[in-house]
Amino acid sequence: MILCCGEALIDMLPRETGAGEDAFTPYPGGAVFNTAIALGRLGVRTGFFCPMSDDMFGQRLRAALDGAGVAHALSPAVDRPCTLAFVTLTNGQAQYAFYDTGTALREMALAELPVLDDSVQALFFGGISLVSDPCGTGFATLCAHAGDRVVMMDPNIRPGFIRDESGYRARLDAMLARADIVKVSDEDLHWLMGTGEIADLAEGLRTRGPRVVIVTEGASGARAFHAGGVAHAAANRVEVVDTVGAGDTFNAGFLAALDDAGLLTRDAVATLDAEALQTALALGAKAAAVTVARAGANPPTRAEL
């Protein structure tokens, strides 16, 4: 099982009423939650961990996980409200305003962390769940206790959400040192590593711990930097409706391809060749293309691919 560990929240997506008024409609979401849903729809045995509210929004989150076949028994129901993320779109690009104080996610306690058994072969981390305390400390602690499991990480950096940059960078540094696979956008990579050529920055990031560093570059596709060189997959040309959930779906496609090939072990990831990486990048790109071609974070099933 791949256990996705990170935020579950409600995306308030912009819509228009029948009277022509601007409105927001609630949809289950969160970067790591979206990746779990996408993995489940791709037929991969998937689990999800994050404390979820026992309110009506928490019930919607659990129903969505159930609908995708994602196990969530490790996620405690708590008497704290659900995080809300209001989304605005500019030329299809999403911007977010988070309402997170005192929530099921933000106030996660170390006592709420799951005990991992042998059914968990890989862990996925990322998103805003790594930014703030106490939840950021909790997810970093879980990562540090991953044992011999594969760890993939997508920081999915939201600069406007960061209040303690030095603390956040220190947390990411520790998690990067443990991660086997790291996926970043080109914008994330520059935030982490500064100015420079993408290839040089990606190789610099790889020296900090990860065996594979994936950089997504929008219409230019995605590259995976590894010990054997660089693998590349082109982006699929589609008419973009919005980009909500695109990167999250890419992560799921990449992990699903490794799972299909029986390569989700630390030894296998350390020695991935260009062919295996290209196949995984291609499935990630293909799945993401479906998501961006329709509204909201609505990843495809395996049959749709």
From TrEMBL:
Gene3D superfamilies: 3.40.1190.20. Its EC number is 2.7.1.4. Keywords: ATP-binding, Kinase, Nucleotide-binding, Transferase. Transmembrane segments: none annotated. SUPFAM superfamilies: Ribokinase-like. Signal peptide: none annotated. GO terms for molecular function: ATP binding; fructokinase activity. PROSITE patterns: PFKB_KINASES_2 (PS00584). It comes from the Bacteria. It holds the Pfam family PfkB. The keyword ATP-binding applies. Residues 2-300 form the Carbohydrate kinase PfkB domain. Belongs to the carbohydrate kinase PfkB family. This is Fructokinase. It comes from Roseinatronobacter ekhonensis. The gene is scrK.
